[in-house]
Design goal:
Elements (H helix, E strand, L loop, with lengths): L1 H22 L4 H5 L1 H18 L6 H34 L7 H22 L5 H18 L1 H16 L7 E4 L2 E8 L3 E5 L5 E5 H6 L2 E3 L7 E9 L5 H12 L12 E7 L4 E9 L5 H19 L20 H6 L3 E7 L6 E4 L4 E4 L6 E2 L10 E6 L2 E6 L6 E3 L2 E3 L1 E3 L4 E5 L2 E6 L5
Parallel strand pairs: 11-12
Antiparallel strand pairs: 1-2, 1-5, 2-3, 3-4, 6-8, 7-8, 9-10, 9-19, 11-13, 13-14, 14-17, 15-16, 15-18, 18-19
């Protein structure tokens, strides 16, 4: 009869404690500790059973005492971790890697287990336990060396933070967005929307390129060749016009163009554009290349095939077509508010200035209403300064009259014009 009452009392205590835990699960702290509290409820019921049967289950009684003491300790540790890592530090604006709180709490659990075991079993020496644990740890460590290496690499990644969630990284030939960092692995989402799982040890040993640190901007380089007959300043204007307004391409820092090399069949140019997201790189580069083709076609710039020129005889001094071209030229605005505009020049006299009646109208404040005139004379195309207040320079020298040569640069205030004697052909 007494044994039955003892069992019923033990079950009643466990049931009451379990019901209390279940009724309080709507609280965040209780949800975080629900498993520990349920185990503690069962252990408390068993402890009640040993209290009513003194002396019969002495070893079991000590074990239950240790379990309850250990569960109480880890409950306090868990509550302290929640208060410090989840409430205090975020309130102060400090965000730690997810692995660091887990490692800290885990180490505290281990210390609590040793301390509570010694308190529950004071007569049991810990030297044998420590020695046995060391041997066991050595065997397990050798067997689990790759896994442990990944775990420690994950701790290092969490502490150093070489990359964070949503960063776009590259190591080796692999690129992807970081979607999660666990104890053993890091998960990347590739451009093909595939989930790539990478061991942390591999990331720790390899060189990692983080495209999002210290900022997500990325410099995209697009190389394209243009025909030798097209002046570089025309190609530059065309490439900058092609890069303007492409979705995902930034206006600041501004795009730029470099002349890379004089290759066998073309002059190679590099268009440098800053983009806002490396994940959109293929689409942005494709849009820019498409616009470059359209802009080149609109301006008559040729992207040449690889060619070789074989001359079998000396060329004539001047062909009929060359003589015709000698009576035609163009003015191209290389620098200034009207950059990219051009004007065809023939036998008729042309005017350049600020008024709209001029053949080439400039908005430069240093330009006069009618600044220069260009006309064809027996010695060639002659530039005349129309008695302007700020003057005119040709190739950096101030002039009042000058016979223009192919590729001469004309300076009117902050505007630079280029004289092309052979036209656009």
């Amino acid at each position: 009869m007494r044994l039955a009452l003892t069992i019923l009392s033990s079950l009643a205590v466990s049931a009451i404690l379990i019901s209390i835990v279940a009724s309080m699960r709507r609280l965040l702290i209780v949800r975080q500790l629900s498993f520990v509290l349920l185990v503690a409820a069962v252990a408390a019921g068993l402890r009640v059973f040993t209290l009513f049967t003194p002396g019969k289950y002495e070893t079991f009684d000590h074990v239950l005492s240790w379990v309850l003491l250990f569960l109480g300790s880890i409950t306090v540790i868990r509550l302290a971790g929640l208060l410090y890592f989840d409430l205090h530090l975020p309130h102060r604006g400090v965000r730690l890697p997810n692995l660091l709180p887990m490692v800290t709490v885990g180490a505290a659990y281990f210390v609590a287990a040793i301390v509570t075991f010694k308190l529950s079993f004071p007569a049991t020496p810990l030297s044998g336990l420590v020695t046995g644990s060391a041997i066991t740890s050595l065997v397990i460590g050798l067997a689990l060396q790759p896994i442990l290496g990944n775990i420690f690499a994950g701790v290092v990644i969490g502490l150093e933070k070489p990359f964070r969630i949503n960063d776009w990284i590259k190591f080796g030939d692999i690129e992807g967005r970081v979607v999660s960092i666990s104890w053993r692995t890091t998960h990347l989402r590739t451009r093909d929307s595939d989930n790539l799982i990478v061991p942390n040890a591999k990331l720790a040993d390899d060189r990692v390129l983080n495209y999002y640190y210290p900022h997500p901007m990325h410099l995209e380089r697009i190389v394209i060749g243009a025909h030798y007959k097209t002046p570089p300043y025309r190609v530059r204007q065309a490439l900058l016009a092609a890069a303007a307004g492409v979705p995902g391409a930034l206006e600041k820092p501004t795009p730029d163009v470099y002349v890379l090399a004089f290759a066998e069949s073309a002059i190679n140019y590099e268009l440098r554009v800053w983009i806002e997201d490396i994940a959109q790189r293929p689409r942005i580069a494709s849009d820019i290349r498409g616009r470059v083709w359209e802009e080149f076609a609109r301006r008559g710039i040729v992207i040449p095939f690889p060619i070789r020129t074989l001359e079998l005889a000396p060329r004539a001094q001047r062909s009929k077509d060359a003589a015709m071209r000698a009576t035609a030229a163009r003015l191209f605005v290389a620098i200034g508010p009207e950059a990219g505009d051009d004007l065809a020049i023939g036998a008729a006299r042309v005017l350049v200035g600020r008024t709209r009646t001029c053949d080439l109208s400039l908005s430069d404040s240093q330009a006069s209403k009618e600044h220069i005139a260009i006309e064809l004379q027996p010695e060639g195309f002659v530039l005349t300064d129309l008695e302007t207040s700020n003057g005119t320079k040709v190739n950096g020298e101030k002039v009042t009259r000058a016979v223009l040569q192919h590729m001469d640069r004309i300076f009117i205030g902050d505007t630079v014009l280029v004289f092309e004697a052979d036209g656009r052909d």
